[in-house]
Write a structure and sequence with these properties.
The protein is of the alpha/beta class. The chain has two domains: 244 residues, Thiamin diphosphate (ThDP)-binding fold, Pyr/PP domains (Rossmann fold), CATH 3.40.50.970; 133 residues, 3-Layer(aba) Sandwich (Rossmann fold). It is 41% helix and 19% strand. The strands form four sheets. A six-stranded mixed β-sheet has the order 9-11-10-13-14-15, sandwiched between helices. The protein has a five-stranded mixed β-sheet with strand order 4-5-7-6-12, sandwiched between helices. Strands 1-8 form a two-stranded antiparallel ribbon. α3 packs parallel to α4, α6 crosses α8 and α9 packs across α12. The longest helix is centred in the middle third of the chain and has 33 residues. The radius of gyration is 21 Å and the shape is globular.
Length: 392
């Protein structure tokens, strides 16, 4: 039977990786993901997990090692954050295009400069187009469940793509929560032994990652894009199977109090729970406000998002990434593209909040809704605003 325990979210993720029976764990420590790999190293050293723990010299080496172990047919896991994730960037493209089913948890953290170890989504938005499937967790239970789901999806022979599970650094990674850790027997039912679609084997030699001359490169990239889009059906299928075994159902897009809403907030990650509290407060005050939470970021679930929006006319999109010189944040840009030139589409207003670990409070969400309403009445020249900037 599953057991409910009060546990740090990072430690719970490591326990989930243990339940998944990961075989190779290349790792390099960087705040705030370090507790995940620290606990995994302890599990391996204590004989609780039969795996190779590889302490590498950098994050670039960690992902390179992941590619080698996954290509050889081993169930592979790592985690990273911020500058470490950026150092991996070159190899992230290799892992995805070579269709290597690696699982990585990213404890999202702000990018330097100035130096910040606190949470926002700048690190992962830099990597949004590397070709990895990506999900966002709102709390510790989701972090555990999405980690198990990631292995199931990545290793599906119809998918065979790497998966990133995003958790907010510190505000989620270092928080102690009551979490239900599943039973090993149930995990084994959900996650069968890894049988790679392709693997390096001296008895049956193959070439992986050769030079892509101009005559084949475009076709390889198109095949990768098609595989990502096809993967969505198996992502949803795996969530259905997860619900059957564990009793918790996940969707790519989640709606909260969207009935008769006039304004919808759009969020990703742990601030979604604060946003729900804000929606409750605004509903109590007679305001018709709802919330849409994005759980699946890549491949983006456009059809499900449009369905969730319905006939609502105003979207207030909260990004936790500020791209200098852009017209809006990355999530805002995604949604404007999704609704471009569709008759009756909502007005989409992009807000940036919570950079570098700054709190996004209930009051901030109320401010965002007020601004979105004002913008909708008279569209300003710039439909983009950073919330909570302190005056000099």
């Amino acid at each position: 039977m599953s057991k409910r325990v009060g546990i740090e979210v990072s430690i719970a993720i490591a326990e989930a990786v243990g339940l998944a029976k990961a075989e190779v764990i290349p790792a390099y420590p960087i705040t705030p993901q370090t507790h995940i790999v620290e606990h995994l190293s302890e599990m391996v050293a204590n004989g609780e997990l039969d795996a190779e723990f590889v302490p590498v010299e950098s994050e670039h080496a960690a992902m390179s090692c992941c590619c080698g172990s996954s290509a050889a047919g081993a169930r592979t896991f790592t985690s990273s954050s911020a500058q470490g994730l950026s150092l991996m960037s070159e190899v992230l493209y290799i892992a995805s295009t070579m269709r290597l089913p690696i699982v990585m948890v990213v404890a999202n953290r702000a990018m330097s400069a100035p130096i910040s170890i606190w949470n926002d989504h700048q690190d992962i938005m830099v990597q949004r187009d590397t070709g990895w499937i990506q999900t966002f967790a709102e709390n510790g239970q989701e972090a555990v469940d999405l980690t198990l789901h990631a292995f199931r999806v990545a290793e599906d022979r119809n998918v065979s793509l790497p998966v990133i599970v995003n958790i907010d650094g510190f505000t989620l990674s270092h928080v102690i929560e009551p979490i239900e850790l599943p039973d090993q027997e149930d995990v084994d039912r959900f996650l069968p032994p890894f049988k790679p679609r392709y693997k390096l084997d001296p008895r049956r030699p193959i070439t992986m990652g050769p030079v892509g001359i101009p005559e084949v490169y475009t076709e390889a990239k198109v095949a990768h894009d098609m595989a990502m889009k096809k993967a969505k059906r198996y992502i949803l299928k795996a969530w259905d199977e997860f619900a059957e075994i564990f009793g918790r159902k996940y969707n790519p897009i989640e709606s909260y109090r969207t009935e008769d809403a006039e304004v919808l907030l759009v969020t990703m990650g742990s601030i979604s729970e604060t946003a729900m509290t804000a929606v409750d407060a605004m509903r109590d005050a007679g305001q018709k406000v709802g919330l849409i939470r994005i759980r699946l970021w890549r491949p983006f679930p456009g059809q499900e998002f449009r369905r969730a929006v319905g006939k609502v006319k105003v979207l207030a999109v909260i990004d936790r990434c500020l791209p200098p010189g852009a017209m809006c944040g990355p999530v805002g840009a995604e949604l404007r593209s999704l609704f471009y030139k569709i008759p009756g589409s909502p007005k989409i207003f992009s807000f940036v909040a919570g950079l570098g670990g700054r709190d996004v409070t209930v009051e901030r969400f109320e401010e965002i809704v007020d601004k979105a309403r004002a913008f909708a009445k008279k569209r300003p020249r710039e439909l983009y605003e950073v919330i909570g900037v302190r005056e000099k």
